[in-house]
């Protein structure tokens, strides 16, 4: 819910002269129908015959605010339980009916609602409607499912709250300090103590009270026949009944805040102090909500924002700023805050934040600021509607928070109607400095000596006695069979066209949508392999600095010119290449591409801008070095690729970043940023003819040097496998990583490789997640990835778990790798995992950015565009024997490198018994610039 503004975020500052506001009618309204069944269920449907898919979403009117006293986290726990068994479906069947057919499913818990959603091929719609009727009417809530999912929720809490340096601040202290009475004050994820206190009767009573037809809205968006959808809804959902008692609603009203307050919280491994200020705010349906939304955008949206300009860019006292107009169903809060830079105090942050709030209370925003904020908000809404699930979310969210799905369409007009005086008015009304709550967040080491640790004991509440209906899984022969699958709907793939300009720039254009959005993405062959010796992160910094000033535009002016157009412009680097990305509405494309061309061809690499970016990068690294998952990831390349151009951290290290100079970046740019070393991809609402013409106009004058572009080196690692434990005392979890050398993207066994990886760890139902999360509750998620490169790629399997479970999780990963290399996967499993790949590919190309990414990668790795249309057939053609051969060749656990970052006192000794060569490296002594990884 928070907007975070970092150096990798979208760029934009207010123009001195306001750009015209993007018309709200440029965002097509979501056409939908709505009806209410006799049992009280709301049904919303929006037909889109252009897609081969459909999304089915269930929006329940129960969220974290409805958790019983002493049972915080119940709504979130039920988010997990709803994926288990029903009367006629064994546990994990939701995944069999979605992921295994090329779809996806998920859920989320908010303060006011819980939503469950699936995206699947449209011919599975009847099955999904039937499945949702099973979950609503016949969920099996038993002791086994309850305990296993409770363990998973605990691991999620450890990962998101206890292992994240700022998890406690945002998940625990922020709501607790802001609200006195309203249940919004409780953490949505709950607490381990309250979850442990719950009984099966508590859980069943909660389900019976809130999971009922008159408390849910069904939202369906995609390719369907309306009459057929209505018939299925009437058949499967209309017969469900409600309990006799009405739904219990929260009636608590948060009292007005009479005076300012201060709350100080502490956490382990907090590298940079943080400060947050909150005020009691408005509800989503309040007439002030649009003005507060615009106020929020003016304060913190992108580099155009006042907070970024003041605290990050000008004063350089903050590593990150944020604000949020939190507008839930009942009155919420308004938040501003900052994570301070190294050596800066929370007091300095408070002074600067209050100064910016005072400016908006004293003087209305400029016309340019107002226009830019509106353009940004409108363009953002348009991007949300690229996908069918995005449109479904817009309708469901409006219904649950504002009480009317139509607000998904009318909110744009409401935002456009906001005036500068409205923004000042709500700033005055809500952001009174005498009614603020200031939350200071510091490292535990800064707690005053002798100060007693707070005892936040959960309330002791007796469990309820439940004697209502209970569903059980029927014996296999007595279960109702799912409905049949309908006739498949064929996808309509875009057809890429390409042309090479006279200067050698390769241009690829694919018209993929009539929605008014275009993505322009440039890939350059200038990855981490181009870093000079000892200067890890130089290529990445070169790419990142492109948008920080050109020979004719300053960094603020670049931001001004892009965000005022409602565009996003960003740049960054990776292992094999660099990328510059633009996303904009087609009417502004020519103007935006002129700016894009300027940053690519004419970066200034000014010393003051480089110093600013180095400082921000170092602050970011100080935070990352306190996160076990990040530490394990950083150590992977130096361990696996030691002695090669990939044998360092692509984003740089504290020592290497500090050494970077303007001359280093200029040298990389001069060598690699040239038209014959670049590929430009244009996707979305644009024809090939228009795309080629725009490319010629923007980049046709880019001169090709007389000498050829440098060759990329072959990556041929020879490092021996290692076992490394990085000791991070006090962290809430251990990150377990298993890594091996991978393959080239051009390798003949690429497709068997991606299928093999998907069997092992690609998706919720893959083997690693089955064994580690689903069966044992040891992690919030376990996965693996196969990252092909130009020559030698990387295989990586990873999971985070409580520290003492790290050896067990490592054993499970290596066991599954061994099984995959020992016997062929079954035809049924292989079919399901191929569907995951094919379905994910189809969903990726739904968005302009996703399509541009796929085409750009093909071009970067020298593959023909015909590979795009051949993807599905090549995945389908992979055989069990090919998967087995790939696993034996590339995934043998005998040659793995193991990296585990966490509190080593909990796992080092058991690991040494398994791995006699284990190296234990204290995090404080870690040196990522050395092959030994030690200072």
Structure description:
- The two termini are 39 Å apart.
- Helix 18 crosses helix 23 (688-699).
- By secondary structure, the protein is α+β, with helices and mostly antiparallel strands.
- The strands form four sheets. A six-stranded mixed sheet has the order 1-10-11-9-12-8, sandwiched between helices. A six-stranded mixed sheet has the order 2-3-7-4-6-5, with helices on both faces. The chain has a six-stranded mixed sheet with strand order 13-14-18-15-17-16, with helices on both faces.
- It has 31 helices and 24 strands.
What's the helix and strand layout?
Layout: E1 3-5, E2 33-36, E3 42-47, E4 53-60, H1 74-81, H2 93-96, E5 104-109, E6 114-121, H3 125-137, H4 143-162, H5 167-178, H6 192-197, H7 200-210, E7 216-222, H8 226-236, E8 261-267, E9 274-280, H9 289-300, H10 306-314, E10 318-326, E11 333-340, H11 346-362, H12 367-384, H13 388-402, H14 407-416, H15 420-430, E12 437-443, E13 497-500, E14 506-511, E15 518-524, H16 538-545, H17 555-563, E16 568-573, E17 578-584, H18 589-601, H19 607-624, H20 628-640, H21 654-659, H22 662-672, E18 678-684, H23 688-699, E19 723-727, E20 734-741, H24 750-761, H25 767-774, E21 782-787, E22 794-801, H26 806-822, H27 827-844, H28 848-860, H29 866-876, H30 880-890, E23 897-902, H31 908-914, E24 919-922
Parallel strand pairs: 3-7, 8-12, 14-18, 19-23, 19-24
Antiparallel strand pairs: 1-10, 2-3, 4-6, 4-7, 5-6, 9-11, 9-12, 10-11, 13-14, 15-17, 15-18, 16-17, 20-22, 20-23, 21-22
């Amino acid at each position: 819910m928070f907007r975070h503004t970092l150096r990798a975020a979208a760029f934009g500052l207010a123009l001195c002269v306001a750009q015209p506001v993007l018309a709200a009618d440029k965002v097509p309204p979501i056409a939908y129908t709505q009806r209410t069944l006799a049992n009280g269920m709301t049904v919303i449907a929006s037909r889109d015959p252009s897609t081969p898919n459909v999304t089915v979403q269930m929006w329940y009117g129960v969220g974290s605010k409805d958790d019983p006293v002493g049972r915080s986290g119940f709504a979130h726990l039920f988010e997990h339980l709803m994926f288990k068994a029903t009367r006629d479906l064994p546990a994990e069947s939701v995944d069999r009916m979605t992921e295994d057919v090329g779809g996806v499913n998920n859920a989320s818990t908010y303060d006011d609602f819980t939503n469950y959603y699936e995206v699947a091929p449209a011919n599975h719609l009847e099955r999904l409607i039937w499945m949702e009727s099973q979950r609503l009417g016949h969920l099996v809530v038993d002791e086994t499912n309850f305990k296993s999912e409770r363990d998973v929720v605990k691991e999620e809490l450890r990962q998101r709250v206890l292992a994240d340096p700022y998890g406690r601040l945002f998940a625990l202290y922020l709501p607790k300090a802001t609200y006195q009475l309203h249940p919004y004050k409780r953490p949505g994820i709950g607490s381990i103590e309250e979850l442990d206190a719950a009984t099966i009767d508590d859980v069943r009573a909660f389900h019976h009270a809130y999971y009922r037809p008159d408390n849910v809205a069904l939202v369906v968006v995609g390719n369907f026949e309306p009459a057929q959808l209505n018939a299925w809804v009437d058949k499967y959902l209309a017969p469900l009944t409600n309990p006799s008692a009405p739904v219990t609603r929260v009636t608590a009203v948060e009292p007005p805040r009479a005076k300012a307050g201060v709350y100080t919280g502490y956490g382990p491994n907090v590298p940079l102090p943080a400060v947050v200020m909150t005020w009691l705010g408005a509800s989503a349906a309040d007439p002030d909500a649009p003005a507060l939304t615009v106020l929020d955008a003016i304060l913190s949206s992108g580099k155009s924002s006042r907070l970024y300009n003041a605290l990050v860019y000008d004063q350089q006292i903050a590593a990150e700023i944020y604000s949020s107009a939190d507008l839930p169903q009942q009155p919420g809060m308004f938040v501003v805050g900052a994570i301070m830079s190294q050596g800066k105090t929370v007091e300095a942050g408070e002074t600067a934040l209050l100064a910016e709030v005072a400016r908006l209370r004293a003087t209305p925003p400029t016309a340019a600021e107002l226009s830019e904020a509106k353009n940004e908000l409108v363009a953002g809404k348009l991007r949300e509607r690229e996908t069918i699930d995005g449109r479904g979310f817009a309708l469901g969210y409006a219904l649950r928070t504002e009480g009317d799905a139509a607000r998904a369409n009318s909110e744009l007009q409401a935002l456009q109607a906001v005036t500068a005086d409205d923004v000042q008015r709500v700033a005055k009304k809500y952001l009174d400095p005498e009614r603020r709550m200031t939350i200071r967040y510091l490292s535990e080491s800064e707690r005053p000596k002798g100060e007693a640790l707070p005892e936040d004991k959960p309330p002791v509440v007796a469990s309820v006695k439940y004697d209502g209906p209970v569903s059980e899984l029927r014996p296999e022969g007595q279960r109702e069979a799912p409905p049949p699958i309908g006739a498949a709907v064929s996808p309509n793939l875009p057809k890429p066209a390409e042309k090479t300009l006279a200067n050698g720039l390769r241009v690829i254009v694919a018209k993929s949508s009539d929605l008014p959005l275009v993505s322009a993405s440039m890939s350059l062959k200038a990855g981490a392999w181009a870093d000079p010796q000892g200067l890890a992160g130089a290529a990445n910094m070169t790419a990142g600095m492109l948008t920080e000033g050109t020979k004719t535009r300053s960094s603020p002016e670049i931001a001004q010119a892009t965000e005022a157009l409602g565009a996003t412009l960003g740049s960054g680097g990776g292992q094999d290449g660099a990328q510059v990305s633009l996303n904009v509405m087609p009417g502004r494309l020519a103007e935006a591409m002129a700016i894009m061309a300027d940053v690519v061809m004419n970066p200034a690499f000014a010393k003051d801008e480089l110093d600013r970016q180095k400082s921000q990068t170092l602050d970011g690294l100080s935070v990352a070095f306190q996160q076990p998952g990040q530490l394990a990831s950083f150590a992977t390349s130096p361990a696996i690729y030691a002695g090669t151009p990939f044998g360092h951290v692509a984003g740089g290290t504290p020592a290497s970043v500090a050494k970077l100079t303007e001359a280093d970046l200029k040298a990389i740019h001069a060598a690699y940023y040239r038209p014959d070393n670049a590929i430009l991809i244009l996707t979305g609402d644009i024809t090939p003819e228009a795309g080629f013409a725009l490319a010629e106009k923007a980049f046709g004058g880019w001169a090709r040097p007389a000498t050829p572009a440098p060759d990329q080196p072959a990556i041929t690692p020879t490092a021996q496998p290692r076992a490394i434990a990085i000791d991070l005392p006090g962290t809430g979890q251990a990150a377990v990583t298993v890594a091996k050398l991978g393959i080239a993207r051009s390798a003949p066994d690429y497709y068997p490789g991606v299928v093999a990886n998907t069997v092992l760890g690609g998706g919720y139902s893959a083997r690693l997640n089955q064994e580690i999360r689903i069966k044992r509750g040891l992690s919030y998620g376990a996965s693996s990835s196969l990252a092909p490169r130009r020559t030698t790629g990387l295989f990586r399997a990873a999971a985070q778990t409580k520290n003492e479970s790290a050896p067990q999780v490592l054993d499970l990963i290596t066991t599954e790798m061994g099984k995959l290399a020992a016997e062929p996967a079954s035809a049924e499993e292989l079919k399901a995992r191929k569907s995951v790949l094919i379905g994910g590919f189809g969903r990726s190309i739904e968005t302009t950015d996703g399509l541009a990414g796929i085409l750009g990668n093909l071009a970067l790795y020298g593959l023909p565009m015909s590979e795009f249309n051949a993807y599905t057939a090549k995945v389908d053609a992979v055989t069990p024997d090919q998967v087995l051969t790939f696993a034996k060749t590339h995934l043998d656990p005998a040659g793995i490198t193991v990296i585990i970052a966490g509190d080593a006192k909990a796992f080092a000794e058991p690991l040494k018994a398994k791995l006699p060569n284990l190296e234990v490296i204290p995090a404080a002594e870690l040196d990522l610039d050395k092959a030994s990884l030690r200072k």
